Amino acid sequence: MNANALMAAFSLLVLLTCAPLRIHSQLERRLVNMTLVRNAPSIGAYCLDGSLPAYHFDRGFGAGERNWLLQFEGGGWCNDIKSCLERAPTRRGSTRYMSRVEVFSGILSNNASLNPDFYNWNRVKLRYCDGASFAGDAVFQNGTSLLYFRGQRIWRAIIEDLLPKGLGQAKKALLSGCSAGGLATFLHCDNFTSYLPKDASVKCLSDAGFFLDGRDIAMNHTMRYFYKSLVTLQGVEKNLNTNCTRAISLYPEQCMFPQYALPYIKTPFFILNSAYDVYQFHHILVPPAADPHGHWYHCKLNPAACNPVQIATLQGFRKYMLQSLRSFFINSTRGGMYINSCFTHCQSETQDTWLAPDSPRVSTKAISEAVGDWYFGRSVSKEIDCPYPCDKTCHNMIGLSQIQVLNNL
């Protein structure tokens, strides 16, 4: 089955099963306008195509007016000139093609019943248009084409635009992100802390950003080579954690992987991830090149269709993720964790998974409860789910947001 047919099948599946939940979520949606960073050119901060970077800002109120939540947008990466040129004239590489209004839901919701711990905070969504998790600093020009790899400068430009708007006087702050934005949280966590008052309570949350340096089913390091080319092309190495790159001096690009960078992050950190993250399942464990005959097609579409060997492979991937997090789980006194067994990707921005009557639970806790308990120190929050298929709170299907991710990467 070709890619278009696969996407059509996914779309039909979602329309038939998820429509009631989506309609319910839209009843409570918050629409927030885009803000362009007009001063960005002064520090050379541009999207891939040279357009201005942007964010969406919903001001806090009441007891939350001096608290800040920043959310990195996700959307994959581009690791060569061809893919970056293709990305530049789209919403993934230019603010010219982005929606001017964004829906704030889940962790970005301003509704106390849907987001009890962060609803009245200043909430900001950082738009993603550089293709390297806000970490590159280079330019490509060959006489006919021009690409700006300026993610690191975009990050700085947005922060400097927000500081005089109240971020500089923050009492509490949480830097978060989903997917490639979740990876950006690992890359920028300590730097974020450096901008804020010394007495501020600053913490970081990565959602679906714990990308693993693992072998695929053909025993190739597909993701490692992808990140190596990404780091080289976009000039990322100088913006990686210096303690990490010194420790892995022969292969500094590996510090793009959270499992290597995490031990060097000083700011309190929370990791929200599925042990069966569908992006990693489809692109790291079973990338198309490793399955040319489509033996995994039905398993990718529906985990219930996986054969015993495929299930064992998925359980091995889960085991590797937990092994990679073992030191953090045991030794981190300020860290938090929520590793569930839902076949999904990104769970904090969607109301159905963040907090809803039928949202996923681990040890009876919804994701929003676990994050809130960790941030405010109400209880230790390191939740690890049992292996698939024991968790009956998972919907265990790829939702609309996942289809969009798979279609754009």
UniProtKB/TrEMBL annotation:
GO terms for biological process: cell wall organization. It comes from the Eukaryota. The keyword Repeat does not apply. Its EC number is 3.1.1.-. Keywords: Cell wall, Cell wall biogenesis/degradation, Hydrolase, Secreted, Signal. GO terms for molecular function: hydrolase activity. Transmembrane segments: none annotated. It is found in: Secreted, Cell wall. InterPro entries: PAE/NOTUM. The keyword Repeat does not apply. Residues 1-25 form the signal peptide. Belongs to the pectinacetylesterase family. Hydrolyzes acetyl esters in homogalacturonan regions of pectin. In type I primary cell wall, galacturonic acid residues of pectin can be acetylated at the O-2 and O-3 positions. Decreasing the degree of acetylation of pectin gels in vitro alters their physical properties. This is Pectin acetylesterase.
